[in-house]
From TrEMBL:
Keywords from the UniProt entry: Acyltransferase, Transferase
Native organism: Mycolicibacterium vanbaalenii (strain DSM 7251 / JCM 13017 / BCRC 16820 / KCTC 9966 / NRRL B-24157 / PYR-1)
Keyword Cell inner membrane set for record: no
Stored CDD domains: LPLAT_MGAT-like
UniProt-recorded name of the protein: Phospholipid/glycerol acyltransferase
Residue ranges annotated for the Phospholipid/glycerol acyltransferase domain, each copy included: 63-182
Length: 281
């Protein structure tokens, strides 16, 4: 008779088997070109998108873009930055974004893969950088993206530093990407890490949080897997100065990580000081 461990292992394999394999060729420049005008208009009107400092990103070649992350499973910061990057550098420049396995597996979100979204793991990230692409990562993952809304201006990767090793191995610069506004797209009440452990989805699906939030049209919701309407919060994003590969190679993981988090926190504090009201901006 199968024990609990066997059942969990079977469920983990089943979930893993449904994660699409990373195929960089799924990114479709023609599709992005067709969708970009309408989506940028939506971002400009609904989120009043304000993206600054794109000229600080190296104009070509591989680069690791490291951002603080907000907004749950419908993160407006990723939406806005992806559109801004493609508009500024052109759709032909290869650009990829890492996302949680469940996000890239969800029905109806195949269009994300056409924009360059791949499952978040070291192999996929390395593949994207070796191809010469720009890669956007959010080390804080579900820990940061589901933080309570009253901590919306805190940058906290939860101690995750794997991106530093990734950059060092690939020999690419790190460019910090700071954003504010995303955690006001819903009222996040609790990360729900205790709930993830209780439901054992941390073992089955690498899901460390089952958040509790208030969001239209459902009101109180447990987990963020059901489609909802993000509030029209103003999204402001600012690119910070790059950290050169030589500086990354010369420093240890803690030094580089603290520099990245420090740059992001300083920028978030400054951008947050410009906001007069939540959502309204």
């Amino acid at each position: 008779m199968a024990g609990l461990g066997d059942v969990l292992e079977w469920a983990k394999r089943e979930v893993g088997a449904r994660v699409p394999k990373a195929d960089l060729d799924q990114r479709d420049a023609d599709y992005i070109r067709e969708q970009l005008p309408g989506l940028w208009l939506l971002a400009s009107l609904y989120f009043r998108a304000d993206v600054r400092g794109l000229d600080r990103i190296p104009p070509d070649g591989p680069v690791l873009l490291v951002g603080n992350h907000s907004g749950g499973n419908l993160p407006p910061d990723t939406f806005v930055f992806t559109l801004a990057f493609c508009s500024y550098f052109g759709v032909e420049r290869p650009f990829y974004q890492l996302a949680h396995n469940l996000v890239v597996s969800m029905p109806g979100l195949g269009s994300l893969r056409k924009f360059g979204t791949v499952a978040a793991n070291h192999d996929n990230a390395t593949l994207a950088l070796k191809s010469g692409g720009a890669l956007l990562v959010y080390p804080g993952g579900d820990y940061e993206v589901f933080r309570p809304s009253w901590k919306r201006h805190e940058v906290d990767f939860g101690g995750r530093k794997g991106y530093v090793k990734l950059s060092r191995e690939a020999g690419v610069p790190i460019v910090p990407i700071a954003s504010v506004g995303g955690q006001e797209a819903a009222l996040f009440l609790d990360r729900g890490q205790w709930l993830a452990r209780l439901l054992m989805v941390d073992k089955i699906a690498r899901l460390k949080s089952v958040p509790i939030l208030l969001a239209p049209p459902w009101g109180l919701a447990v987990s963020d897997m059901v489609p909802r309407l993000p509030l029209p919060t103003k999204i402001t994003i600012e690119v910070q100065d790059p950290i050169a590969p030589e500086e990354i190679a010369a420093g240890d993981d803690d030094t580089v990580h603290n520099r990245v988090e420090g740059a992001l926190q300083s920028a978030v504090d400054r951008l947050a000081a410009e906001r007069r009201f939540p959502v309204i901006g």
